[in-house]
Amino acid sequence: MGDGSHLGKVRGLGSSGHGSHHWLQQRLTALGNILLVGFLFVSLIRLPLGDHGAVLRWATNPMVALALILMVVSVFWHLRLGLQVLIEDYVHGPMRLLALVLLNFYAIGGAAYGIFTIARIALAPVVAGPGGM
Amino acid sequence: MAGNEPNARPRAPHLQVYKWGPAMAVSILHRASGDGLAIVGAGLFLWWLGAIAAGPEAYAAFVACIWHDPNPEISLFHQITNILGKVVLIGLTWAFFQHLFSGLRHLVLDTGAGYELKTNKLWSTVVIAAGVFATAATWLYILAGAL
């Protein structure tokens, strides 16, 4: 297999040259997800999820907040790569470009919202209230 | 599928002429569970984070919507979302385990191992069975704790 002709590349028929990069990132974020989503899963099972005060105490722990931020980065990076392949397989024509742009909005916007919210929970001043601290 | 391009490049093989096997099932389940986690799972996680940050009242409203509304005069909307929420959470639990186990299978396949027909069939079946088993075990544990 060669690199394809210059004309082929211009027509979008050649290799983009980013395939192994995408493949490797998907595997590396998968390893991150095993660790970090595994941590979230165990936490969700063990936490009294109906008790806001208990959930808040858990989420304000600096190590937990750090793990959650790392998880958001790993998960949203991984889901962007995965949904990109889904779109490339099933969406054709001009809709593909639109779908890929929307995917990037979702992945970057969702990750930004998640990281900001985790930081806000962890750094917010403690307010005394019923069921709270 | 690709449409009306006037070229004679090979078409994708007709999926429906193949005998359906565990390897095909685990492949499409990996995609389906991944997409479910990516859209529904990540979305619910962000909603949960937002509810934690918004304070005790907002958090109680979140729990009343997706899990259990303690109000004796519960609205029809919450009656529906209380059931729907549990269905979605059980579905996400299954998607998590299915995607985790078949993801681990992919990491093994990446080393070049496990492509022999019998081995491949065996581990595809194990992945599907383990996903269902782990989901059932998790929810039995949750329900046992709730009693």
From TrEMBL, chain A:
Protein localization: Membrane
Main location: membrane
Residue stretches spanning the membrane: 28-49, 55-77, 97-123
Keyword Calcium: no
Pathway the protein acts in: Carbohydrate metabolism; tricarboxylic acid cycle
Keyword Lipid metabolism recorded: no
Pfam family, one: Sdh_cyt
An example molecular function term from Gene Ontology annotations: metal ion binding
GO cellular component, one term: membrane
CDD domains: SQR_TypeC_SdhD_like
Topology in the lipid bilayer: Multi-pass membrane protein
Cofactor: heme
InterPro entries associated with the record: SQR/QFR_C/D, Succ_DH_anchor, SuccDH_FuR_B_TM-su
Lineage top rank: taxon: Bacteria
Keywords: Electron transport, Heme, Iron, Membrane, Metal-binding, Transmembrane, Transmembrane helix, Transport, Tricarboxylic acid cycle
A single GO BP: tricarboxylic acid cycle
Quaternary structure, from the entry: Part of an enzyme complex containing four subunits: a flavoprotein, an iron-sulfur protein, plus two membrane-anchoring proteins, SdhC and SdhD.
Function: Membrane-anchoring subunit of succinate dehydrogenase (SDH).
Protein name per Swiss-Prot or TrEMBL: Succinate dehydrogenase hydrophobic membrane anchor subunit
The species this protein was found in: Sphingopyxis bauzanensis
Recorded name of the encoding gene: sdhD
Automatic annotation (TrEMBL), chain B:
UniProt binding sites for heme: H99
Transmembrane annotation, as ranges: 45-68, 80-102, 122-144
Annotated cofactor note: The heme is bound between the two transmembrane subunits.
Membrane as UniProt keyword: yes
Function, as annotated: Membrane-anchoring subunit of succinate dehydrogenase (SDH).
Similarity annotation: Belongs to the cytochrome b560 family.
Name the record gives this protein: Succinate dehydrogenase cytochrome b556 subunit
Protein source organism: Sphingopyxis bauzanensis
Organism lineage: Bacteria, Pseudomonadati, Pseudomonadota, Alphaproteobacteria, Sphingomonadales
